[in-house]
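Section handout 9: paired folding examples.
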Amino acid sequence: MRGPTKSFVLLFVCLLVWGTPAFAQSDKPAGDQAAPAAKPASEEEVQQLRREVAELKATIQKLMLVNSQQPAASGHLVEASAVVSNNTTQPTDPNALPSADPNASPATAADIDALQKEIDLLQKKAGDAGPVTAGWNGEHFFLKSSDGNFVLMPVGYLDANYVSYNGDGHPPDTFSIQRARFGVQGNYGKQLDYAFLFETASSVTIRDAYIDFKPWDFLKFQAGQYKVPFSMEVGTADTNVEFVDRSIVSVLYPDAGGSFRAPGVDAHGDLFGGALTYWGGVFNGKGLITNNTTNEPEVTGRIRIQPFKNSDNPFKNFAVGGSAAHSRSRGLSNELSFSGALNDGAYTFFPQYIINGGIERYNGFAIYRRGPLGIRGEYTQGLWKREGIGTLQLGGIGNQSLPGIIGKGAYGQVTYLLTGEEEPENAIPRVKHPVIGPSSPGETGGPGWGAWAVKFRYSWLQGKAPGASCTDNNTCPITPAIFPAQSDHTDQFTGGVNWYLNYWILLKFDFNVDRLLYPSVQGITKQNYAVFLQQVQFRF
């Protein structure tokens, strides 16, 4: 097509291509633009443009056919919707395009092909527009390299609590910041994830600092400081725990005093389409950024089986598993057995003892989810040995060993989302109708009352320190020593409500009944405590 006709069609196509917002991109950060950067063109939009181009080409071909049928002497291009120069002849094709110039030359097949090439070039240029390098991915802010390989996301969360008590000798009612964590996470390519997260609630402390190398689904490697893979409850992210606190059983888990984290390395992976997941690693076993005190690392293994994961069975989201851990303590480092303090701080039901020797832990868990319902349960027991501990005990019993400290506990919990959201395993529910925007990733529901969940948990915990005596003057002090046995247990009932204002803001309301069944370490007699806990959680 020569002259004004070709120019008109080409101008029309250019406007069609470049006037589509989905193709307008910029390499500059979003904050440097007068208007927000548009999204990259989707496959559907590209296909729609191709269909429009094909229709335009077909129309031009019809026009060319009509032109070829006119008398050569006329010297005019017959138009489809306009009167020819003598204003008496009507167009023969009602689908033809109007012409900007009645003296334009007829279009040829070469003109059509040239136009198609120009259109393809414009499409390619639009499709090659640079990717978005900064913005919001629906869940986190992000910075991304131009090739898309390196992604960095600032992340953080805040848990602010208010706790009130009722019972003899209880702690004062108080506001507190339970967590205030900030850091970055992301990936480099598809095979390497990383995270650096700091705790700032009291003093600045490294919480998570690791890389996760994922060459295959069945074998991945993680190294740095992060959660020791023991128990389902520990595996639940801090922001996804549905109660204000984890269960009272969590004091039995490895590195409980260090937020369940320690420096180390592990191998993990998924088998059979995720129906079986495993973890196995070695750690210092002494808590946050702390060196080991023995030549024997903490060895931890965990396995999770979801037998119906890849089926439509009603038990598709049923899973069971277990964990085991072995470590070693050093009495000369003043290492102690597990803490007997309740997670809400109401009282300490069992004392801590100096330990020396092996520490063995075992755990079993189960979970079932269906729709808005979630059911979870877990049992844990441990043995803290006291080998050759006599000289470290008050009064001393020579080099004799004492029976080990035994800890046992279990919990069971039920949660139910009243507003119809699906109960996730280790995530925040996708709130369908948030009180305040934006909507959850993947959700398009309008404003509403947010998501509401009810919850209940029962947990119990037992501590036992068998007694011992020494009457042999060859191995004992001049005065014989007797160490009485200690065996206590406690339990806790927890009920409450969660109100998810949106995907990022959560209000928790818990009510605990703590039952002190034996006199506490503080000397408080048997009684029940009522504890009301409120928490505001914000994350980004």
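Moving on to protein 2 of 2.
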Amino acid sequence: MLFEWENVKRKGPEPEVETFVVIKGKQRIYSKILQMTKETNTDFSALLPVPDLIRIDGLGLSESLPKSTIQARFLTELLDKKLSAIKALGKRIEKSGFSVRAKNPEIGLQLSPSMVMRDSKEILFFITPRINSSLTQEDVCLWTNCRELVNSFVVVFEDLWRNSVDIENIILEMERGAQSPRTVIINDAQIAKRKYDEAMQSAREEIMLVTSSEGLIKLSEDRNGLKELTKKGVSIKVLAPITGKNIEAAMDLLENCEVRHGPMGWLATAIIDKQHLFQFKIPSAKEPTNSGYFNNVLYTSDSLFVETTKKMLYKLWENARIPSKPTLESVIEKTYSDANLYEGKLLGKVIGEKPLGAITEKDLLEKIFTGKKYPAQRGLKDIVRYYGSSAMGIVYPPIHFGLPEIFFNVIQCNKKSSFGAEDWIILSLKLETTEGAKYVPVVHVTDNPKAARARRALFSDTPSSASVQVMKEHELQVHVHGSSLFAGWTTPIPLPILNSSIPPAGLLFEGYGDVRSGFVTRLTQRGRRQEVEYNRLEALLTFFHPASKYSGPGIDGFFDREMIFTSYPPLSK
């Protein structure tokens, strides 16, 4: 009987452990994608540039999906020089005998992040920015089978799929050498600017503009023209990345336009009265801004093209946030300035800061490379030092999420840190203090039990003392590659102070601009002196919240690509 009972217990499938895996280099990435195709049972979806699709098919993609019941869908960009290749790819896939629909996302709207999914069970997505290029040896992907995160990317893919344009007719037009009479590429910058100015002046109802962070500043400088349009009753919507450099321009534009914070890297676009659509290449730093936008401008009055693009941009608009004057830098400064009391307890204050340039990027890199380890053995009496990277950003969830605005601080520590290697997230909520409403840490999440014990003692007088959560390695992952940081968790994060929790979700920080090296000293509630040295980039934050089927930009953030955090014990009396 015991033998039979053991056999019965073995018959049930073992629950699958949700985890993350980092995959580096094109050969390993190709191999993983092909493995996913072989294991597909119902549906396979890929969002990849044409060169990658061709390469993967050459390695056996068509043969790896042999079942007629499989629905395979591919999103890619269709470029003139790749026409013969994409036709050959389509024919080879069709011969395999399963259902395939190939679509092309709207021209200019980037395929970021590139991803591959199967059966809504697992996903491989890129954490390195990639624009119209094939895989390289330096590319890095994350693979996960976390159902909640996979579902969030499924939503992203489905939105792109619904708003895409079928490519069959476009291929036929290209084969015949014919171009739609309503869609042209204007090569002459002067003609393009004149056409654009005429369309803007003719506006009667609505203008939607998508531009870069620099383009927003240019709009602010020329806002008199926009002001005249609003006087005529024209509604103007502007979507652009809001950063510390252009926040003043954004606030100026808010007097006459609606302005929202959008993701970085989208092609500059103007839609006027649902009749005219212009798409511009963002000029490089070497090109004059005035003329650079009007080189090789795409113009169309095709109502279908205009309408589908408008729908996609409105989806982005709905998830975007209105900019507010307090930037993340000012929030941090306010949080740590002077005495910051919560229920009578001192949380911290800034006591010193070296000017920019006092520490260089090279100095900090060398210090991390040669730095010594300070093992933490005596708790609060030890010098504690962390080496690694960190990122900070504020997420303002829509009201229907049922979540407050959250200040995320994500840290990845290497093995030379006092507690060893660690992935670590601090969640702060805005609470009333004696200095007004400020962000106060309420939860610490880590995958290092030793570090958790030390923090419970260190933060015993703060709201987060009872909320130091320990997750397993496969439940919490932080990955850094180049100027990008991704953090994801596969189990809910409790928020005891609100009697609530945050379901599995993800954060993607994308650093940009010039590196700023800095040094700041703080004094904590227990008299410990903290020194933070950093090589900092401004960063744009994307928040993936699968439980609400949401993927959208947060507010501006920071990415400390290299960071040293040192905490010294209190001085004796």
